Amino acid sequence: MWRDLTPIGRYDATGGYRRFAYTAPELECRAWFAEQAAARGLAVNTDRNGNLWAWWGDPTDGDAVVTGSHLDSVPDGGPFDGPLGVASAFAAIDLLRAEGATPRRPIGVAAFVEEEGGRFGVACLGSRLMSGAITPDAARALADENGVTFEQAMADAGTDPMSIGHDVAMLSQIGSYVELHIEQGRAQIDLDAPVAVGGAIWPHGRWRMDFQGRADHAGTTRLDDRADPMLTYANTVLAARKKARLAGAVATVGRVMCEPNGTNAIPSRVRGWLDARAEDVDALEQVVREVEEATLARADRDGTNATITRESYSPRVDFDVPLRDRLVETLGGVPVLSTGAGHDAGVLSAVLPTAMLFVRNPTGVSHSPAESAEMVDCLAGVTALASVLRDLAC
Ligand code: GLV
Ligand code: MN
Ligand code: MN
Ligand code: MN
Questions:
Q1: Distance 218 CA to ligand 2 centre (A)
Q2: Do the interacting molecules here have an ipTM over 0.95?
Q3: Which of 117, 142, 149, 150 has its CA 20 to 30 A from that of 360?
Q4: Residue of the CA atom closest to atom 1 of ligand 1
């Protein structure tokens, strides 16, 4: 299963994955999902929002236990962020079947669309749509960097973009969602724990920052005569780092666009994106406010114009406590971790009891080709997930 999946969307120059929603590699991943389901005799369907489902049992019986994750990636992401949860779901079903288990609740495997927001900018788009956390109009209008809208991309893939939105019927069939995921930091290395359970997700968000200046000649324009948005932008990047450190938060500017992007021209326009997260919501709000203040002050000095617009936001999530405790007990007392990474399980926690399982990552690195996992830990993850499904559904 893993051997079939790993070549898809792998970018040879870096060894990372480029599986953006509704692009050819992601459609291939979807075909892989359908093949895996068919090979196990599971019924497959795509929901109104483009999320994929495979069912052991009849979901209309209700109170289903769903597990899974996502198949898309960040630019040059690692192999495990997302796909490990989906592959482990199929493998856990194999384990349960091998021992002759018969579920009394339907078991579903889900792969949510555009979890990373790598193409259309809003993370967890499929689960946000399903849970009603984003309006259909707002989602349809999202566009990738070539101006292709989410609406168009969906239509091209054969899913009707007019039927997206809060899927009450689907949600009413689900009793709980448990997502297995590669750990994206070093906590499990430090704790020497192959498997852990999710406790909380930090509040986090994305802000688009637009810097407008005046294009001019790199050789003939005196420094004092410039309105250089790159300068304002650079100051904002440094301010983000400084303010985040002071507040005990994290802030990242990982994406930037510059126009006209010529070596010998002062830019006319720079656009960057700020990703900010903190365990404490007040710290997060403080960082964003201070970065904005520093940016506006600097733009004034540089003769540029700057605006900061919130593009998406995820409030703090504390996973369902009874479900969390049940997982910990089923697994014999594994550690509970909170994380600064966002997940569909976080978004869905607004409408369903959700929980997470984490599998140790020996590099502690994620959203990078250097992300890794040991086979033995992946198997421990599958065994843990099978135990959880056995406990909840069988
Ligand atoms: C998604 O993985 C995120 O946390 O950005
Ligand atoms: Mn990710
Ligand atoms: Mn992920
Ligand atoms: Mn994520």
A1: 39
A2: no
A3: 117
A4: 342
